Structures are given as C-alpha cells and as structure tokens.
Amino acid sequence: MPAGGRPGAGGNPVAGARFHVDPTSDAATAARNLRATAPADAALMARVAGGSAARWFGDAEPAVLTARVRAHVSLIRAAGALPVLVAYGIPDRDCGSYSAGGASGPEGYRAWIAAFAAGVRGSPAIVILEPDGISLVDCLTPTGRQARFDLLRHAAGTLTDAGATVYLDAGNAGWHSATETAARLRAAGVDQTRGFALNVSNFDDTASEVAYGRQISAALGGGVHFVVDTSRNGRDRAPDGAWCNPPGRGLGVLPTTQTGDASVDAFLWIKVPGESDGTCNGGPPAGQWWPEYALELARRAA
User: Fold this and answer.
1) How far apart are CA 214 and CA 220, in angstroms?
2) CB distance 145 to 107 below 8 Å
3) What positions carry a catalytic annotation?
4) Where is this region: Disordered (predicted)?
C-alpha cells in the first residue's frame, strides 16, 4: 500500500491505489430509498454513490479527533483501500463566510493537527491540507498572513512525519496566477509535502487545472506533483464563474491514479458531490446533504 512522500522522493506514492466507495454514504442511502418510488432517480443517485469521496474533518475537539480519524482510516484500510482525508480546521477558516469555523487560535490549531496526525500515524493515507487556506489569506492582516503560513508549514511537516501523503491546497486556475500561488505554497511549506491540490470544491475543467498545475510546479522549480478534484467538473465552471452551488454543473471523472500525466498523482473526488457549498442558490448550510443538487450533478455527468 502506498506510503507518504515528499517532492522528488521518487515515483508516485499513491500509484495503483484503490479508493473506497462508502455503502453508507448519503448518496448510497438516497439511491436505496428511491428504488421503489423513483427508479430513474435512484439510478442517477447511484452514479453519485459510485464515486469514492474524501472524508472531511473540521471542528472536532482534539480530545475526540484522533479516535475519529483513526476509526475512519482503519475502516478504509480494512477494505484494502487508501483513505483520502481533508484537514479543515485552520483558524479564521473561509474568512468567516459560509464555512466559517476552525481552531480558536495558533495553539489550538497545533493541538488539533497533532491529534489529526496521531489518527493517521502508522497507516498510509492521503491528506488534503486546508482547502482555501492559502488562497484566502488576502482577508488577513500582514501579521495574520504570516501566522497562517507558519501554521500551514507546521501542519504540513507534522502530517508528513506521521506518514501521510500530503497535498497542500492551492486553489484553482481562476483564482490567482501560477506565480502568486507558487509563492504562497512555498511560504506555506509545500517543500514538506508531496505537492498540492487543485480545484477543491470547484468546477474548473480538468485540462485547465492540469495546465495550471504544471505552471505552478515549474514556478516551484519543477518536479512538484499534484492532484485535481474532479468531483463536480464534468461541465466546466459556470459561465459567470460562480463557485457556490452554481446550477448546470455535472459529475467529473471517477477517482483514479491513471491520469495520463506524470505530474498528476490522482484525480480525486475531494468535495463530496451533493453536499452544499453554503446558503446560496437555494442550498442548505455548507456541508449539508442536498439530494436535489446531487441528482442534477448526476444528470449532467461528463
């Protein structure tokens, strides 16, 4: 089973990994419930349920976080698959917007990351580190930005030392220039990880993200690998660039390590398709299951 890796450490550390499809997911449960009354919708929902989505961990207290992470990792490993986890607990998360929350301060976050790392220690796992963590530093003061970078560097090293294959979130091609993103990744400790993640919870087409990732890797000196979130990018981004529950989007390609590009370690479903981005476009609060949106994604799948 693949183990952790840093840039330049050799071949793809997740090559050949099998990803776990959760039979108890919201989508799987909805598909079963729809079979008797709406078989066509049940078939669509089964398409959502058939993808292996990452498990997000956010606001749990350190006292319980280790046990929760360890239990999830053990479940996936027992099935012979590679866990894909998202660490989402940075202070001032999402600039206080739809997904506001996170640790109360630097010391709280260090304790939180230590607890997370304890949960994955000894078991191979992919960890996507802090979606939007570097892309949203513009809402912070200069002192706050440096504190954010310091915390991310600490988290990157802690998780990598625990054996995880860590990808530091880097936003998407429609946000910051590759040069700017590379500078932020460098400040946030990408050198202590396998590489970076693109398009998390967004809708940009895969080809654009791969091209953007290559530009970032080159700006970092070359050889830095990345993964792309394909969970909802089957129809590209919305014409107006909306990121919060835009209509007309579709599921992208299923998770795989067969990407056809040596720079791209995997295509992953990091965002859980069918979970809301926030209370926009008719959606429930961020992270809540929204079956109507899930069905729309399936109807318009790539």
Assistant:
1) 10
2) no
3) 94, 132, 277
4) 1-20
- Residue 289 annotated as part of some ligand binding site: no
CA dihedral for 165, 169, 172, 178, sign (positive or negative): negative
Long-range Cβ pairs for the range 257-264 (8 Å, 24+): 257/12, 257/14, 257/15, 257/16, 257/17, 259/228, 261/210, 262/12, 263/210, 263/213, 263/214, 263/217, 263/225, 263/226, 264/210, 264/213, 264/225, 264/226, 264/227, 264/228
Cα–Cα distance for residue pair 271/199, rounded to 1 Å: 9
The reply, when asked if residue 275 is annotated as ligand binding, is yes
Beta strand pairing status for 84-87 and 195-198? unpaired
Residue the block writes with tokens 């840039």: 7
Alpha carbon 150 to chain centroid, angstroms: 21
Give me the residue spans of the domains in the chain.
Answer: 26-299
Residue-wise pLDDT tens digits, 180-202: 999 999 999 999 999 999 999 99
Query: What are the C-alpha distances in Å from 267 to residues 52, 72, 91, 257?
Result: 11, 21, 28, 6
**Percentage of the chain lying above the pLDDT 90 cut:** 93
Name the CATH topology of 26-299.
TIM Barrel (3.20.20)
- The pLDDT score that the predictor gives to residue 3 is 47
Q: Do the annotations mark residue 202 as ligand-binding?
A: yes
Tokens of 95: 């600039």
290 is in an annotated binding site: no
Residue with tokens 């999402």: 94
Dihedral angle at the C-alpha atoms of 255, 277, 93, 188, nearest 10 degrees?
30
Percentage of residues in the chain with pLDDT exceeding 70? 97
Average pLDDT of span 138-162: 97
Q: pLDDT tens digit string along 216-242?
A: 999 999 999 999 999 999 999 999 999
In 3D space, the residue among 57, 46, 54 whose CA is nearest the CA of residue 23 turns out to be: 46
